[in-house]
Amino acid sequence: MSDTEDDQFHHTTVKITILGEPFTGKSSLCQRYLSNSPRAPGGTTHGAEVLAGQCLGLRPPVPLHLCDVAGNSLSTGMLRNYLYASDVVLFVYDLSNLQSFDKLNVWIEKVKEIFDEEPKKPLMALFGNKSDLEHQRAVRLSCVKQLASKYLLENFKGSARTGEMVNYAFTDLIARVLRLPVPSSHVTVPIKLETELELSKDASQPDGVPTSPLIMNRKTLRKIQRKASSSICSVQ
């Protein structure tokens, strides 16, 4: 990167607007990303709260604004103002709450309507929060994939409480906006959960060979993970 480009990225502020139903963990997601700590229980967002920070996963660090929008803003006339100049719109749902996912269709259509006549369209993505409650999952994986495919959305799943996939999701989205590669240190291999192991058994042929592309990809990733664990790791 040239000095001119380097200086440009130092002054490029990325705005990420976070939308979704109440109690999906939007504020906790912002808190986890900016301070790497869970948000204290209690309290709700009123209107919208804009938080400033930096994406430290990219070099040089990228300044950013996180606009945490209250879950009741869908029924107000302020949503257009909150979305102004957004580079990324992140739709958050609670994977243990089906209603929070079903309502995303309304949120997405509203955002598309607001940006319909705007020359600059934001990058839009899904984030399934509360993966630490996977045993209480109410949203089917197939429904998530269908929604992501319908609206061409990037798709992530993680937990604001544990921090799983939070840094990766934000870093990946910011890098896409700036057309930068995501550092290899932020590429994580997903861990197969018990429910996913059961799905892989159901998707197997009689001889035990998985037929689902998703299962095949995860099998490949496990091989990569085993190979990586046998090599020398550097401490970040």
Structural write-up:
This protein is of the alpha/beta class and 236 residues long. The protein contains nine helices and six strands. It folds into two domains: 3-186, Rossmann fold (3-Layer(aba) Sandwich); 194-229, no CATH class. The protein has helices spanning 3-10, 26-35, 79-83, 98-102, 104-114, 141-151, 166-178, 194-202, 213-229; strands at residues 14-19, 48-55, 62-69, 88-94, 123-129, 154-157. It has a six-stranded mixed beta sheet with strand order 2-3-1-4-5-6, with helices on both faces.
Question: What key attributes describe this structure?
Answer:
alpha/beta, Rossmann fold, 236 residues, 6-stranded mixed beta sheet, GTP binding, single chain, globular, 2 domains
Strand content: 15-25%
* Helix/strand/pairing category: alpha/beta
Cα(first) to Cα(last) distance is 23 Å
Predict the CATH topology of the largest domain: Rossmann fold
What is the C-level CATH assignment of the largest domain? Alpha Beta
How is the main sheet built? 6 strands, mixed
**Average of the residue pLDDT scores:** 80
Please state the CA-atom Rg, rounded to the nearest Å. Answer: 19 Å
How many extended strands?
Answer: 6
Keywords: Nucleotide-binding
Protein name: Ras-related protein Rab-28-like
GO molecular function: GTP binding; GTPase activity
Family: Belongs to the small GTPase superfamily. Rab family.
